Amino acid sequence: MEFFVFSLVDVERRKAYPVAVGQTIRSEAEKAAARQRRKKKRTPKKKKVSGTTPGRKQGSVNKDKNALDLSPELERINKLLAGVLKLLRVFVKVEHLALDGHFGHHQAVLMALSNDLHLISKMRRDAALFEKYAGAPGGRGAKKKYGKRLKYDLMPTKYLTHSERAGEIITNYYQGLFLHREFGREINVVIIVKINLKTKKAGHLILFSSDGLMSWEKMVDYYSLRFQIEFNFRDAKQHFGLEDFMTRGDAGVENAANMSFLMVGMSAKLIAESGEKRVSINDLKTHYRGEKYLTEAIKILLKKPETIIKKEAIEEAKERISQLGSIHQRKVVVSTA
Predict the structure, then answer these.
(1) CA dihedral of residues 129, 133, 138, 141 (deg, nearest 10)
(2) Do 110 and 38 contact (CB within 8 A), yes or no?
(3) Strand intervals (E) in the chain
(4) Longest dimension (CA), the chain
(5) pLDDT 10s per residue in the chain (337 long)?
(6) Which of 116, 143, 237, 303 could form a disulfide with 243 if both were Cys (CB 3.0 to 4.6 A apart)?
(7) Which residues span the domain enclosing 287?
(8) Measured distance CA(13)–CA(101) in Å, rounded
(9) What is the C-alpha separation between 125 and 128, in angstroms, rounded?
(10) Are 24 and 2 in contact, with CB atoms under 8 Å apart?
C-alpha cells in the first residue's frame, strides 16, 4: 500500500506536522504506462543510421512548455494539495512546496505555480543545464537562447557562493539562474560539489527552485527539512498502527491511515505543551498509561473499601489492572464463595 502525505514544516522548530493523507491507487492505464517506461529504459538505444538528416523531423512544431498538462499522478497530488491549501491559508502563509527528486521536472513546477507556490526539488545528477547565452546576436532566425552546458566537475568560479572544509572533504556551493530544454523558464539552481582530497573523487547534488530570489542557504535548508516528514511515517508505523491495521475496505483503510497520522500530530502538540516533562512519544504513552492504571486502581478501592484486603479482591484488582493495554482483554470472574 502507498500513501502520499502533505506535512506543514515549522522551519524554526525543525519539525513536520502531517496535515493531509491520500492513498495512492493507480489506474490500469497508469500501470501500463509505467511498465512501458521501465521497458524503454531497459531497451538499448538504436544507433543512428548513416545518411539521415540531423535535427527535428520535417513538419514538427514547437510545444508550449508552460502549458499545464498533468499526469494522473500529479492530478491526484494537485487535488489533495488544493484542498490542503484552502484550509491552511486561513491560518498561515504558505509560499514553498518541497518535493523529492521524483518530482524534479517542469510539470511539477507548473503544478506548484498554479497553486501560488514555488517548488523546491532535486534534479537528476546528469541533468543538462545551460548558461544563458551572453554573446552577440547572430543574423537571421531566432535569437540564440542557450549558452555553454554546465560541466559539474569544472564549474565556473563565478557561480561559487560558499566553500567549506571538514577534514579531507571540501564542499563547494554554486548558485545561478540556468536554463533546461524541458523547462519553459529560468530556474534557480544550487549545485553542491563534494571533493575528497585524499581519494580525489568528487560527487555532486543539484537542487532547484522556481523562486528566482531564493538564497542558496535557504534552498539547502528547506530541502533538507523535507526529511522531517520521514519521521512522521516512522512514528505512525511504530506507535499508531499504520503498519498493523487489519481493515481492507476503502473507507476503513482511509480512516485507519488518517487516524495514525492524526495521532502523530496530536502527540506532537501534547509533547510541546508538557514542556520538558515528556520529550518523546514513549514518554507520553507511559504517562497516560500510568494515569489509566491509577484511575482503575482507585475505582476498585472505592468500590469495595471494606473487602479490598481480602484475597479475592486483591486477585480481582491484579487481573483487571494487568490487562490494561492488552489487545485481547478477557472478562474477569472472581469467585467469592
Answers:
(1) 50
(2) no
(3) 3-10, 15-23, 96-98, 118-122, 130-132, 146-149, 160-166, 169-178, 187-196, 202-209
(4) 110
(5) 888 999 999 999 899 999 998 888 888 877 887 788 777 766 666 666 666 666 667 777 777 788 888 888 899 999 999 999 999 989 888 999 999 999 999 999 999 999 999 999 999 999 999 998 887 776 676 778 888 999 998 999 999 999 999 999 999 999 999 999 999 889 999 999 999 999 989 999 999 999 999 999 999 999 999 999 999 999 999 999 888 888 888 888 888 889 999 999 999 988 888 877 777 888 888 878 877 887 777 777 666 555 445 666 666 666 666 666 655 555 655 554 4
(6) 237
(7) 281-322
(8) 24
(9) 9
(10) yes
CA dihedral 212, 218, 221, 225 (to 10 degrees): -70
Q: Among 222, 228, 150, which residue's Cα sits nearest to residue 193? A: 150
User: Among residues 269, 271, 265, which one has the least CA distance to residue 285?
Assistant: 271
* Assigned C-alpha cell, 286: 507511559
For the CA atoms of the chain, what is the radius of gyration? 29
Question: Do 107 and 74 contact (CB within 8 A), yes or no?
Answer: yes
Q: Is residue 20 part of a domain?
A: no
Is 285 within a domain? Answer: yes
- Count of domains forming the chain: 1
Report yes or no on 286 lying in a domain. Answer: yes
Q: Is 305 helix (H, G, I), strand (E, B) or coil?
A: coil
293 belongs to a structural domain: yes
Write the CA distances from 133 to 148, 161, 257, integer angstroms: 8, 21, 50
